[in-house]
Amino acid sequence: xxxxxxxxxxxxxxxxxxxxxxxxxxxxxxxxxxxxxxxxxxxxxxxxxxxxxxxxxxxxxxxxxxxxxxxxxxxxxxxxxxxxxxxxxxxxxxxxxxxxxxxxxxxxxxxxxxxxxxxxxxxxxxxxxxxxxxxxxxxxxxxxxxxxxxxxxxxxxxxxxxxxxxxxxxxxxxxxxxxxxxxxxxxxxxxxxxxxxxxxxxxxxxxxxxxxxxxxxxxxxxxxxxxxxxxxxxxxxxxxxxxxxxxxxxxxxxxxxxxxxxxxxxxxxxxxxxxx
Length: 276
Hints:
Number of strands: 0
Structural class: mainly alpha
Shape: elongated
Distance between the termini: 44 Å
Order of helices and strands: HHHHHHHHHHHH
Number of helices: 12
């Protein structure tokens, strides 16, 4: 006659107690914000680059660029310039996010987090939300500098709210893409190279600095349909009272698509690394 041996409840191995995903995400967000405060170099570069580009194009190239786009007054070029600079500020957030995620993955802190009773996705969520907060704060500073150097907007309060929502959507999209790229590469040096097209190259291949009509045909077709142009033209229409046309739906479509792609890709890479 066989007997069944049972383990007393008091000595049965217990798994980690489940914790709230939201609570874990807030903890990771706090960690990333504290890390940014203690090591401000990346945050400073996040703000300084778009401000430097704003001052450079306004004061050095402003007169020539205004004449080239049919506006003889260099003071008006700042109004054309600012929406593109704001999107460049959003793109600048890709670099520190990609490098930060890559550093966490390669230095072992994420492996340590995986041994703890926390929700795995909160590591990514905390990083992404922290990066969005930092980028939005940098945008506020860029807007302040833009007003100081002569930018004027005809937007109503509801248009400012729409512009803020658009910038937040773009921040979320590029941040989740940066989180995925940071997991994909294996060294921080490579991470900075991977992020370069999003933080520097694509803004120059858009309508940020000159109108689409001034570009050669082959470049104009690319610039017209790439995400940065859609966001810039929509933002320009909201802030300056111009026409948005097809660029509004394009901007929202690009933002939602890139956010979903980045989020799903990030989660897939994180789970793949956990099984290795």
